[in-house]
Batch of 4 targets.
Target 1
Amino acid sequence: MSKMNIPFSREIPLNDQYDVIVAGGGPSGCGAAIAAAREGASVLLIEAAGALGGMGTNGLVPAWCPFSDRTKIVYRGIALEVFEKAKAEMKHVKQEDLDWVPIDPEALKRVYDELVTNAGVTVLFYTQVLAAICEGQKIDYIATANKAGITAYKAKIYIDCTGDADLAALSGLEFEYGEEENHEVQPTTHCFMIANVDDYHYRNMPFLHMNNKDSAVYDIARSEKYPLVTDPHCCNSVIGPGTVGFNAGHIWDVDAADPFCVSKAMMEGRKIAYQYHQGLKEYLPEVFGGSFLAATAPAMGIRESRRIIGEYTITLADYMERRSFPDEIGRNCYFLDVHHSIREREKLLRGESNGQEGHQGYLDGESHGIPYRSLIPKNLKNMLVAGRSISCEHIVQGSIRVMPVCLVTGQAAGTAARLACDTPDNEVRAIDISKLREILKRNGAFLE
Ligand SMILES: Cc1cc2nc3c(=O)[nH]c(=O)nc-3n(C[C@H](O)[C@H](O)[C@H](O)COP(=O)(O)OP(=O)(O)OC[C@H]3O[C@@H](n4cnc5c(N)ncnc54)[C@H](O)[C@@H]3O)c2cc1C
């Protein structure tokens, strides 16, 4: 695309009433906003969509990744609060369950709404952060766009929870994108929901998953009738009576920062969901014969895009050696869940791979620490990042990207932001780390 200069200058309103601005209202953004507000900051949470929860609600991701290391709960504090409240709405789920608990997206939206409201957070929906104006090593103010036009906001501390490190990129910071050498990112998935499923037959059919080579997903992926279902990736959970959420199918090479690319992927995703559903009806008529495709997600399922370059980058070696850090703000035990590339897909379909090579996981009770420094972008004083774009190697992002971890990094960023509001220069590096850890522990965090 060529570039041009246009005379685009006019007076815009400037709002400077907030201490902390959180960009993005997914799990990390909600965790950050709630934590900062509970510690006494005035907080504005800016969200591009019309609901909080990010991928867990607008993305229709149908299940929580495990909350436990199979011996204890690892993701606590606000993460556990959100999880327990959302689970309480799921009457068919055993309340003691901790791992792969299904998500009712409407219930989860209400949980986030209630928690941010009770914490005193101001929420601004349908608003996109579109620019950051920096002064030296600080963000001076940000510009946002919505139905009211363009508005500037000025705060002491900004927290980038956009998932795509939008605010970091808009501030001119360098970032990593995908795999370190070829910049390949994980494939996307457009999640969907099928209703009027036969509950009895669903519960009694063979495991409908890529790990079960005999399951119908392989038939669908190999069938020429459903050409857009090109691989057997299929996670599914009962999210309500007769209603099953699907995280199934893949689209490769989607650049989250390219709106044309995402728009094309959304349309392709809807076609994949339709073909997937047709295939399920054909191969599992007793389960899906009378069902209908109730919804596709309003948001594209982006697993990976930009990652900040932080004061510390969590490495594969850190993960493999289960390292702890003096400044750790939480722990993580989820496996290295990097979805297969388009090349590996062929092997998978031929039955020569299970699609999970390199998926290193931990033994019971093991975890690694997440250092506070991985939330601090280099070269900026008054911004923190939480969620799936914190500073880590591509392969580690496959683990830290999931929702329980994002809630934990969000809570830490929000708490640290509140502390940074009291430092002379609003510098996120200047906070007392032991105080941060003390507050996090007091508020339920699991820290070694
Ligand atoms: C297909 C798929 C399946 C997954 N399955 C699971 C699973 O089973 N279990 C699990 O726990 N995790 C799963 N994950 C991972 C997890 O859902 C996400 O990685 C996690 O939600 C990331 O949290 P986040 O807060 O960083 O970002 P997001 O959840 O992506 O939230 C970011 C929010 O910021 C908003 N936003 C973005 N840019 C802007 C902007 N410029 N201005 C204003 N707002 C903005 C977005 O609208 C969004 O609401 C899955 C992810 C995908 C894509």
Target 2
Amino acid sequence: MVKVKSMATQEIGLNEALAERGIAAWETDLAELIVQLGDDLPSHILVPAIHRNRDEIRDIFVESMGGAGKPAPEGLTNDPATLANASRLHLREKFLRAKVAVSGANFAVADSGTLVVVESEGNGRMCLTLPEVLVSVVGIEKIVPTWEDLDVFLQTLPRSSTGERMNPYTSTWSGVNEADGPQEVHVVLLDNGRTRALADEVGRQALRCIRCSACLNVCPVYERTGGKAYGSVYPGPIGAILNPLLKGVGVDEQTDSLPYASSLCGACYDVCPVAIDIPSVLVDLRSQVVDSHRGDGLDGYAAAMAGAGFSFGSATRWKLMTSASGWLAA
Ligand code: SF4
């Protein structure tokens, strides 16, 4: 199986589930391939292997492209063009042999049922046209009503993600074409917590995110910690709100701590092309985290605060407490 970069399938752990059933799913985006071959985690939405330098990438290729009777790529240096060529040769065989492709979609157009993938290497076009079966896993928030709406996003996304006026490859498809391409096309509309996020009056704006990664690039916390510290396929400021919104606050340590992974400087809000007020959502999520743990075990701090709350709650109790503490001090 070949895949074109899809955060939705990473979010649901599709590769791992397929591997358990003995199915090899090959990432075909160069950076995703580097992450996969290095048995690593992505650290950026747009540039998943940004934490790797050229020497490390060369070592990963030598180690993982050889083996199992296959020789390591000959004469591999850390030259970017040589590395890109090695990955091209490695992937070409996968493209030609794969019977099934899995894609995500940057957008889905409701009025024509069209799915849209934007990418910059051409691997998406290969995935979408060569295999016999195509399965697209699409978050329900990716749906836009009409082509006119898509027009706006196709201008907004490349400008905010790579600073380009348009991206190199935009692929659209609306089902099976008998003369060309996959002869079986399936679309999986993924919720996985999105309706939960939609029910959150403050947090629902996070569903507008088009994954441009502009907020990561300006975030002083992300700059210091890198993407892996967020423990999710969605790192950076958007990850700090999206993960708790999708999973629910108070469910684990990650969703409890992510709303605090911010200085609230507001740089993410300034740069976001779809005006998601990330600092306000963070503050609201912090209050939800606190609320979700009220009454959790009565430790010393909570007991002291409960006692203080009880004493300060009425003038009579307050007077009694101050006279009792004076009596105790005497
Ligand atoms: S929150 Fe805004 S800036 Fe950040 S990735 Fe999403 S659309 Fe881009």
Target 3
Amino acid sequence: MLDVRHLRHTFGAGPDAHAALDDLSFSVAAGELACVVGPSGCGKSTVLRAIAGLLAPGSGDVLLHGSPVRGVPADLAFVFQDYSRSLFPWLTVARNVEFPLRWRCARAERRDRAQRELERVGLPDVGARYPWQLSGGMQQRVAIARALATEPALLLMDEPFASVDAQTRFELEDLLRRVQRERGTTVLLVTHDIDESVYLADRVLVLTPAPARLLADLPVGLPEQRDQIATRESPAFVALRAEVARLLRTRSPGARSPSGGRSPTA
Ligand SMILES: Nc1ncnc2c1ncn2[C@@H]1O[C@H](COP(=O)(O)OP(=O)(O)O)[C@@H](O)[C@H]1O
Ligand SMILES: [Mg+2]
């Protein structure tokens, strides 16, 4: 579904040049939920922007359904960390969710679909309110509803739960896994939270410090049904989070994993 091949990108030029991506390659299969973890500033948001067609990489390719991405693909949605700046404050919640549908279907259908999406994220009664009248967690639910309204094949999420409290974060993680399973949406989610990456993902992609390369590609063999307390206590979870933490402590950019395999340092 998604193929990232040999992406390189440098911001600026000359002595101020900053290499953000260095030969970064990975792929994500249809229906998979993959998490990207890496140190702050390593290039995680940059790779999402390249996949979304918001940034033309210096070299390399992004293939979606086998075709190169040139500009923003139609069947892609993006959820950002900062919900307060991504929802439109002058539109009601229902109108926000309807917004991406305005070029796709008629008014009555848009209204029905928006209401269904809001129900799916546990907000059946807030359509007439404005985003700023809702809590941060509720606003992020609205952002997820809006992103899923168009039934995107690929959902990109950049630290979507980093600005909410711990309890809300757990609820949103479970919500995301549930709707992702129900819809079969392919999700690529960036987080700096190791536990979150292991809890959510089918696969964890670990990046090196800048410039980002793939350090390890770890399958998460945890059961489908996850529970915020029991799963996080399970030996498999604890072992995997320790492995990711060890990898993130690796400072030598030479420790490169064979593509698709476990890191040699693991
Ligand atoms: N538009 C830009 N111009 C110059 N440098 C940038 C730009 N965007 C990001 N960078 C730099 O590239 C590096 C990677 O940024 P980013 O992808 O946002 O990191 P992450 O999301 O992993 O924290 C950072 O050092 C950042 O300062
Ligand atoms: Mg970022």
Target 4
Amino acid sequence: MNILVCIKQVPGTSKVEVDPVTGVLKRDGIDSKMNPYDLYALETALKIRESEGGTVKVLSMGPNQALSVIKEAYTMGADEGTLLSDRKFGGADVLATSYTIAQGVKKMGDFELIICGKQTTDGDTAQVGSEMAEWLKIPHVANVKNIVNVEDSTITVEMDMPESIETVKIAYPCLITVDKGIFEPRLPSYRKKLSTKDREIKILSLKDFDDKDEKNYGLNGSPTQVERIFPPEVNNDREMWTGSSSELSGKMGEKLKELKFI
Ligand SMILES: Cc1cc2nc3c(=O)[nH]c(=O)nc-3n(C[C@H](O)[C@H](O)[C@H](O)COP(=O)(O)OP(=O)(O)OC[C@H]3O[C@@H](n4cnc5c(N)ncnc54)[C@H](O)[C@@H]3O)c2cc1C
């Protein structure tokens, strides 16, 4: 089975500053790592390859520094990796990101199964996988917590709904986004690190895509406009009250009215 896993490089720390002028995260010089949910996506693909055979390719979209997450995927067992990288992809919102990745997927070959993480720890929208599937016109299931059965032309999965677990059978080609805990991600292998150190990583840019219209990529292709990004204000003001429970509850009611919570 040909499986594609989408992996994103995210900041490895929660102490990321926001550029006050552009409102964009200052990613230069900060530690980066593979999005934790994508480790689960990759592990799921490797487990399916172990039982069914086939190949596991990985794809990342980002600047050149994202090559490191593809190398990391190689040390876990991925067979091939591609980076989608072009200045014209910069500043993409979810719509433009999912469109760009879908264009890249079309250039990478045919896949029975595409696996994404459920969400990222930076953008955190949990929308890229589903939107990609819509662009590719393939069925998709989100929040997959368990692979029930892998058959020749279908896969059966359990989807975590807020109030229930739904079992779904979908035909290939299809896309799933997986939740953490589906499998325990394996540790990178030092032996694989040595054996894959010269393995090629393909780089695709806008000129390689079928749709070369710059209007559909990066900031140009992003209908979402971020007006302002700022760290949440920290307020450590506190008051200590003493009194009986009826005095305190009355005072609490007055305070909540004053603050317009009620
Ligand atoms: C107006 C606007 C401007 C923005 N500008 C910037 C900017 O300048 N710089 C910037 O870094 N971000 C920017 N962002 C954030 C950026 O849009 C999101 O990070 C991006 O769309 C991916 O969404 P997400 O992280 O929420 O992914 P989710 O939907 O939470 O991710 C789900 C899964 O999709 C896959 N996936 C997601 N992104 C990638 C990727 N890049 N490569 C491979 N797989 C992926 C992974 O498998 C992941 O687990 C901007 C957002 C908006 C709205």
